[in-house]
Amino acid sequence: MFALRLCTQVSRVPFEAFNFGRGGSMRGLKVAVVGAVGGIGQPLTLLLKQNPHISVLSIHDIRNTAGVAADLSHINTPATVCNFEGKSGLKKAMDKADIVVIPAGLPRKPGMRREDLVDVNASVACEVAHAASAVCPGALLAFITNPINVIVPIVATILKAKGTYDPNRLFGVTTLDVVRSKTFIGDILNVDPRTVDLPVIGGHTGHTILPILSQCQPLYKGSDEERQALIRRIQEAGTEVVKAKDGLGSATLSMAYAAYHFVESLIKGIKGSKDECIVECAYVDSDVTEAKFFATQLILGPQGIKENIGLPEMDDEEKQALECMLPNLKKSIENGIKLGEEMSC
Amino acid sequence: MFLLGSLKSQTKIAPWRVVIRTLKVSVVGAGGGIGQPLSLLIRRSPGIDELALHDLSEMKGIAADLSHVSQEGKVIGFTGEVELEPALSGADVVVVAAGMPRLPGMLRDQLMAANGSVAVKVATAVSNACPGALLAFITNPINMIVPTAAEVLKAHGAYDPRRLFGITTLDVVRSKKFIGDAMKISPDKVNIPVIGGHAGITILPLISQCQPEFKGGREDVQKMTHRIQEAGTEVVNAKAGKGSATLSMAFAGAHFVDSLLRGIGGQEGIIECAFVASELTEAPFIASLLELGKYGIKRYLPLPPMSVNEKEAFEKLLPVLKQNANEGIDFARKSLMEKAIPAALP
Fold it and tell me: What is the reaction catalyzed (chain B) (predicted)?
């Protein structure tokens, strides 16, 4: 394993912080997955292993990474797999990564809200933030760990304190809310869900998830009751799966699917594309509303966020829903900032 | 369905949607270590109208999870033995990942005691619910499981040797990977037939037929062959009691199911290795190159040429496959007797 790592480092173009992507479109990327052995991590690494632009897939977890690495390494795609464990392995796993995606942490049980996970999952945010500052300050960081609304502010606060913060490179992955919206609307309109497009803004829990149905393509027309029911279903879809799994976890396969889609877009952004404009929703540092962190549609580029598209047009009900949830979101963000300031790990 | 293709040019219409028909794929053992990632990969493919997920353990949660993926078609969960036939009803393709994996120190053959009944139950259910389906087994030991399933299908009058497969794609995947790495080329650019069976020395990668040519001495070829044969054990040992290959098996399984679907859709030139009933050799079941079509196997390609050493290894594995097939058939007959179902006449 060590020899393998030496090989991959010798063959790479020297990496400069904040300036990856200079190697040109031929250079393969290093993607690190923190929490790779878990319910989301394993199917996610399976999808990542198939991406032709990834030359090194670095997997990390607290234990059992050797088996997953051996398994993945048999897949006949170009990416080399290396594995690391525990606190001491985290920096090695993330060393000079271009992208770090973090599904690590505990999932909800029935009856829990995402916020209830803060106590147990904040340490993930803390450890990854410290490691990123030390070994890959220019990497794009994509957090899946819940509660996103709090976790991302924690990470931002720590990175700021360390002087390695770039707001264009830190993301909370909210793609699953978009995926679910497309699926439910596709079902209602009886069209292929892949042809549905709409912005889902705000945060990643309950009423902070705002699917902007008025901007849906194709057009969504429903009665007030139907719209409300649809919005509620999108907001509670995560809970729908937690209940259906009855204590055995939360969404894993659909989360891996969504996270892979998001990382694939980050990669396309890094690689640069003349024809395609890479647009994704994600929860990021934002001045689009009074909330310091907010999910909107973003144009992705070689340095992470190229442009924040900002708030979409909204009808009166949607504007009201936004006003209603802002205090809650702001509170979560304040909580995250406070934790980020106080935590040590 | 065709109108939707023009709505968004980026949407891929599946290559097998050349005729308008509903396509159903059933995954048996969808809740397990292979089943879950396999189901995700299949769900990502367009053109499947219904994806049925079955397991003995509760499938509600996994079905709900996967149903949220923004893809055409329904995902429906089925739980327990009583829901096996409903899960299979009207299926075009059934892929079976159910059963126990190996523990360190175990040979695949030792799994027959645990997994033979999977073959019997699934073959019985397929006979009743979807006798025309393409039935593909991942459950080990493939060398015995496929003959067991054949015998049960025969007893129910539902056997078509062109529609029953043991998935050996992972051996091909591993061969490509190891050889690609050794030759320092991209592993997806390697082509090599892997024939025989799916355990130990019955796995025969025909390195002499590798494209591009594998340049290595006799020792290198032997080492490479041995590594490919023992790759499954490599992962079992690395997982130290936590199971066998799941993610790479899901990858390989999904690739094979994709090829089956392309064949059903009428795509030409779909060639895969798989373990099937065969008259190519004295072994009643063997893995070789097959062309897949609308009704399963369209054509058995002749065995590729072999080097002297490969011929020798081939002669050694044939009796093992014959023995495995007999064990599989015996298991089936015993099981059928216990259920008082007459076995088919030989």
Answer: (S)-malate + NAD(+) = oxaloacetate + NADH + H(+)
